[in-house]
Amino acid sequence: MKYVITVEGIEAAPQGSKTYVGKGRMIESCKRVKPFRDAVRVEAEKVVDEIIKEPVIIEIVFWFKRPQSHFDSKGKVLSSEPKYPTKMNIGDIDKLCRSTLDALTLSAILDDSQVVSLQARKYYCVKNYEPEPHTMITIQTIE
Fold it and tell me: What confidence tier does 132 reach under pLDDT thresholds 50, 70, 90?
């Protein structure tokens, strides 16, 4: 079975770095993690009727909005700007996957240990073509 989950209007957030806040408490450094995970859960529950219990292959494509400074006055991407989102403020791809897989746990899959293959990519949105950030998640069960 194949499931396609699209999370629109929110940029993916990396999960993993923690900040110590005292008294033995640690919190996520990135404040965008919780809203992103919540959005993934909501969309996953719309697509997946019953929690998947078998092994799965997951493909995730993250789309990030380009900063306005990447464009010239005519709306074209400046040749000096990077083709792919590699800046630290976007996040490491493994940490983006971690937040996504944690959100899928108990909303689409029983546990992220079921993932036997994972492919992930990150791109910038193309102005006037894909102006909004989004994440596309494909889950393929293995019979």
Answer: confident
